Amino acid sequence: MADQLEIDGDFVPRPRGDVSFAEIDGETVVTAPVDDQQFNNFDAHWLDGTASVVWKALDGSSSVDQVADLLSAAFDADSEVVRADVLQLTRTLAKAGLFEGIPAERPTPFTTQPSGVPVGTELPFFRLFDLDGREHTANDLRGIRSLVVHWSPTCGFCTRVAADLAQLEPLLRTKGVQLLLLAHGDAERNQQVRDDAGLRCPILLLGEFLPFEGLGTPSAYVVDQAGCSEDALIVGADQLMAVAHYLAEDDDPG
Amino acid sequence: MATRSSVAGSVGADGSETPRYLLDETSVCLGELDRLEWTDVMTVELDGLHVGVRSSSPELQDLLGEAMAAHVVDDDRTPPNYSLLLGNGHRSRAKGFHFLYRSSNVHLRTRDPRRVVTGLVSHLSSLRTSRFDGLVALHGCGLVGTTGAAVAPLSLRPLRSQIERRLNLRGVRFVDLPWVFLDPGRMEMVVPEPTITVEASVLDRIDELAPSRRADPPVPPGRYPLTSWIFFGQAERPLSRGQALAAAAHDAFTGDPTSHQATIDALADVMRRIKPVTLDWSEPVKLVDPLVELV
Asked: Which of A60, A108, B25, B163 has the least CB density, counted as fewest CB within 10 Å?
C-alpha cells in the first residue's frame, strides 16, 4: 500500500471507485462514503476552479508529471509551477483517502452527530481566566495551531486521559500545537487534576462558551493559526487521544 | 457517565441477527445530565434497531411504555439514547421547561410536556431507514416560517434556547426531527408523518404528570417549499455555491450506500436553484431577524 509521502511525479493518481463528484459554478465537490456502520455519510471536499481543472485531469492513467505537462501546455503556464501545484493537490487528496491504495491519513471525525463550530469557521470570541487569574481571550488562538479541549475535572473520561495528554504535551509543543483546556469546575479541583496528571497547559475556567454548550466532556476542536476550526468537533476521550497522537506525530501538519 | 461503546448489529454463528444499536458518542461524560436521577432504560425496537429511552420519573416512563407498547422489548444492553425530563428543570434558568435529550444534546426545550413526547415519537420514527426512501437526509436543523422552510446548520441547535422564543413569536418554528429531510426534485422540506405505533389516548394523560404552561405545537407533518439554505461563517465572506455544496454533502447521508452520486447530484441541483446564505453566528440573538426574513 502506498504512502502519501511516497507520492512524486511518477505517481499515477487513480480516484477510488466509490468517489462521487459534482461541478457547480466552475468548482467541484468530491465526496467519498464514510463507513460509520449506521448511516451512509459523505466525506466532502471542495475544489476551487484551478483545483477542479486538475481533478478532471486525474484520469487514473496519467502520472502527476504527465498531468502537469498537459496542463502547463494547455494553459501556457510555467511547467515547474504547475508541477508543484499538481503534486501538492495530489498529496492533499491522497491524504484525504480519495485515491486507490492510499488510506486516509487522519482519524475520521465522529460523524453521526456532527455539531459545534462548522469546519473552517472562527471560534466565537471568549474571555476566560486561567487558574492563576490571568485573562485569556480567543486572540490566544491566533498565530498558533491549538487543540482546544472541553474539560471537566469531575469527568472520569477526562481524568482517565489527563496523564496521557500530559505526556503528549511536549511533543505537541515541538509540533507547534498548543494544548488548551476549557474546564468546568472550580480552580482548586482543576489544579488538583493538573498536578496529579502533570499537565502544564493553561486551564481556563469555563463560563458561557458557545462552541461547547450542550456538549459532553471531553470534546475538542483543532484550531488553525487563524483561529478557525480545522475539522469537525472531536467527541469523546478515545477520539481526543487519537487526534492528539496524530497531531503530536504529524510531520506535515499542513 | 456514558460508559459503553455503541455497537452495530451482526449475524451470529447460528444465523440469528443480533440487534443493532444507535451509534452514540462514546467515552463522553454528559455532565449535568449524568448527575440527575433517571429511570431504567426502556428498549424500543425499530426494524431491528434497539433504542434506549429513559425518563425523569417512573410515572412518565410507565406512560411511554404504555404508549409505545407495540415496540417495547427486553434488552438490558441498550444504552440511554434518549432522555426525557419533565418538571422544573435541572437548572434554575430552565425552570418550567421540559427537555428531550439525544445523548448529551438538548433536542427539544419546551413548556409543553406533550411536545416532548411527540418529539420523541418523531425522532424514533426518523430512525427507520425506510423513511429515507426518495428523500435526502441531512444532519441539520429545519426551520419553517410563514413563506417556506430553511435548512440551517446543526450548530444552531445549541443556540436554540437563546432564540427559539423570539423566532416563535414571529412565526418561525424549529422542526422536531433529528435530521432534515429534503425532496430535492420538488425543492421541498419534508416533515414526515410518524411511523411508529403510539396509543394516542395514553398521551392524553401527560397533563396529569406535568400541566402544560403554554401550548407549543410542533411543525405539523407536511411538505414545505425550500426557500433558503443557511450556513454559518463570516457574512462578509459568503460561501460560494461550491463551498455550500461541500458543506451540504458533508451533512448528508442516505439509507442506500449505492446512491452517493445521485445524492450529490440532487444536492447540486438544489444549490443551483437556491442562493446559499452565510450568517455570522457569533451573537445568536442577531440571527433572529435574518432567519425570520429567510422563511
From this structure: A60
